Amino acid sequence: MSLKQALLYNFLSACTCYLGLILGILLGEIQASIYIFGFAAGMFLYISLVDMVPEMNEVAEEASKISAKKAFQTLLLQNVGMGLGVCTLYILALYQDSIDFT
């Protein structure tokens, strides 16, 4: 890819932020924020899991080549980490109105 092409594609991808801003403002005017937040949360989950799950599988496969005990420890640690993350987000969502940093 040439320098001009790279700059053009970078500029075009940056312009999508402005399209998202306009769309968000328009949808915010019709009280569709609950759907916007749901869609945004789903997109963040999709992006993170698509990147994270293959990496977790690769680490688990490497651990299974060493020993079954190491593979079990790796699996347990991965599941504890995922569960802790889900619980943390649930608690934040549950008590979001009570949190005050001032």
Major sheet summary line: none
Cα gyration radius (Å):
21 Å
Q: Summarize the amount of helix as a percent range.
A: over 70%
* Domain module tally: 2
- Unreliable parts: none
Class based on secondary structure composition and strand pairing: mainly alpha
Helices, by number, come to 3
How would the global form be characterised? flat
Q: What is the ordering of alpha helices and beta strands?
A: HHH
**Proportion in β-strands:** under 5%
Average pLDDT taken over every residue: 88
Beta strand count: 0
What is the terminal separation in angstroms? 50 Å
Overall description:
Belongs to the ZIP transporter (TC 2.A.5) family. It is found in: Membrane. It holds the Pfam family Zip. This is Zinc transporter ZIP14. The protein is an all-alpha fold and 102 residues long. The protein folds into 2 domains: 1-31; 44-102. It is 86% helix and 0% strand. It has 3 helices and no strands. The chain has helices spanning 3-29, 33-66, 68-94. The longest helix is centred in the middle third of the chain and has 34 residues, at 33-66. The chain is flat.
